[in-house]
Amino acid sequence: MRQYTTAKSQNPDALLFFRMGDFYELFFEDAQVASRELQITLTARDRERSVPMCGVPYHAAEAYISRLLRKGYRIAICEQMEDPKLTKKIVRREVVRVLTPGTSLDPGIGSEQNNFLAVLHLSPADVADRICAFALLDISTGDFRTAEFRGPNAAAQCVEEILKAQPSELLLPNSHALPAQAETLRGLERIRTHTKVEDWVFTADYAIPLLQRQLGAHSLEGFGLEGHAHAAVAAGALLHYVRSTQQLEPGHIDSIRFYERSQYLQLDQVTVRNLELVDTLFNDASEQTTLFHTMDCCLTPMGKRMLRSALVRPLIDADALNRRYEAVAEAHAGLIEREELRRALTGILDLERLLARLSLDSAGPRDVLAMGSSLRRLPGVRAALGAFRASPWATCLNRLDALEDLRRQIETTLVLEPPVTLAEGGLIAAGVDEELDSLRTISQSGRQSIAAIEERERERTGIHSLKVRFNSVFGYYIEITRSNLAAVPADYERKQTLVNAERFTTPELKDYETRILTAHERCIDIEKRLFAALRAIVLEAAGRIRKASAVLAEVDLLANFAHLAALRNYVRPVLDDRPMLEIAGGRHPVVESRMEDLGEGRFVANDLYLDASLPAPEQPPAGPSLLLVTGPNMGGKSTYLRQAALLVILAQVGCYVPATSMRFGIVDRIYTRIGASDNVARGRSTFMVEMTETATILNTGTARSLILLDEMGRGTATFDGLSLAWATLEFLHAKIGARTLFATHYHELTLLAEQLPRLKNIHVSVKETPQGIVFLHSIEPGPANKSYGIEVARLAGLPNSVLQRARQVLRQHERAERHNVAVETEAPLQLTIFTPLSQTVLDRLGAADTNSMTPLQALNLLEELKNEIRDAQPGKDGAA
């Protein structure tokens, strides 16, 4: 318990797994926590039950530890550092590793997922040119990246990138108080585990040299970090934490990637969530509704992770996209060559995670053999790549190291079916070590000699039931039943007495026992040494393995795109220099796939045309830059909006798209204002969330952006919402000019098509039948003539009495409320909404014969109507 207390004092914030023989034991509060979270029995070490205790078998501990890590706990592993057989004192124990949610090698993490550890490094908020940096590391794959931002929005940009990576643990400087900057760092509280690190770790004098030593470089210039000291410090601080928790050097981390947001199409966390790119919008929804699941036909874990990363960071480099299109086109055209390549990729396991397990000393013999079997597939991949000529395929072929020397080393060192652990022995193949082969011969011949001793002793004693047996407590012995004790020779030494038998030994048997057991133990020692040498050889090739893994990921991704294009009739997008988006016969990839899986018919394809090009002076615009989409709920407006975004994302990933044809200009950022939800914890209502997201769009959108706005202004009063939506449309048209899809139920907004030359009305079509409405899901020009809200409510199952009353109220409002919408000429495209006119005024206007009326009569009538309106509104000055 003194050892336990010492280890616990060194790791007060971790659950201490204390090795005692074949169990990991937990005591005091740790035991109570583990018992509750793992649902295991809580017992006690003393009669007074003042020391609560629980434990798990050491060979099954990994599953229990993984469950605790997923719940956000830290785990300290305290191991026995001595062999109990070789000491007469209490075995010395030490904490050998601290496992945290961000540093675990949890086998429960999906092969397509990363388990990122993140660190945030902020310069003081009062600095004029503020610099904020972050770093991300997936210790299970060696994926290491960093970035930094400057200016007043630097912190928000860092937070956005961190949240997009969905890390399981966030590191912060010890002096940093998250609540003090809650508004700036909004969203970080969603990360389950926050860990404080000493402030001195975030100094350039400590962190940068540490990073250089890890990467084996005298300068960080070759990694793109020259002049980015804050990013380098963040990465160094993260490495410090990994080294201190793992208590060894993570040799597989030999590279880092610095990236700029401008290198990728920007997708904020709201857009990634709204479009369901990699995760579902609702926790109880099926993962099959995500774009990643729909597009994932990759054959390797590395390819799956690259696809997932690509979907949230599409490219904006036209040359890189065209190269990918060429590669996909060649593989799409060559069925046999494509399938040969995919067949060669089949069976390649997760080389990155196998390497990480080896580097962190968590790998067993079967992990190394799995790596060897995966490397065996690489020559086949190289041969299949040789059939292609496009530059990406040729580049991959030149970069792919087959690692045949490493594969031969693994296959010649290990047996075909090695044991799970080193302690079992029998993992090293014959012919690797002469001493090992000699000891194995002794062991095998010794066992044969034991059988010979049994036969000889039966003949000598005449006891035919005599048996020579072995157990781990008494070693080898001769067992004779009580009825034959009279025939026992005098040289037999009694060893154990049983109820019906006696056990004996002889000098000869003792000699064989010593030779056999000594040989077996010596074999285990030699095999451990040889396995350690093999592990060192593999780790020396860590850089080569990681480069090969990266090439395999890219090959798998491109082959996957070609496979999907052929399987689902996708077409090649065409890049255009103009900021336009032209889609013929576009289909929503996720909805179409789900409909096919569920046998729900064919998806209704639709066209889309947007052109945000600035027209020449005195020339009409090339096309609409803003489409106003109207129509009933359930008609398909949101699907149409999302479809446009998803096709752009697929095109800028380098994939073919579900359409008849597609031509587009590079999009720099996609914004979405879709749906609404409140955030009570942050004191933000549904409408406040909606306005915050809209503000982001209006403040940062550019002419190269793609903007999707769905049902804006519905979270407040009707006139407030309509006014905000109206003003937003004017701003988007006049100030930003981006390709925009704006879905709304405010039919008053359709009047703007007469005022805004680059706005066009479209609607989702509906067919009215005596039985109700039928959604046709097709897009047609012009505004919708009504919203069909009551009909949709009927389909939802509202009681008939409610529906009938709603129709009565609707008819009353349609008769009583007539809105007059006018556009003032003094200010460009300004909206003025009048109050409803009285029925008397409307009746007089309707009865007036304007064809026979003189100008003077018309002016008199206008003056009378104006007075009536003024009289009907007390307190108004009538100046309207």
Brief characterization of the structure:
With 880 residues, the chain is of the alpha/beta class. The chain is 42% helix and 18% strand. Helix 10 packs across helix 19, helix 11 packs antiparallel against helix 14 and helix 12 packs antiparallel against helix 13.
The number of helical segments is 27
Poorly predicted ranges (pLDDT <50, ≥5 residues)?
A: 678-683, 818-836, 875-880
Termini gap: 88 Å
**Count of extended strands:** 29
Assign a percent range to the helix content: 40-55%
Assembly type:
single chain
Radius of gyration: 37 Å
Largest sheet data = 7 strands, mixed
Q: Order of strands across the widest beta sheet?
A: 13-23-24-25-21-26-27
What is the SS-derived class? Answer: alpha/beta
Shape: elongated
| Strand content bin | 15-25%
Please, what is the average pLDDT? 86
Task: Give a written overview of the molecule.
By secondary structure, the chain is an alpha/beta fold. The strands form six sheets. A seven-stranded mixed β-sheet has the order 13-23-24-25-21-26-27, sandwiched between helices. Helix 5 (204-215) packs across helix 6, helix 12 (351-359) runs antiparallel to helix 13 (365-375) and helix 15 runs antiparallel to helix 19 (542-568). The longest helix is centred in the middle third of the chain and has 34 residues, at 507-540.
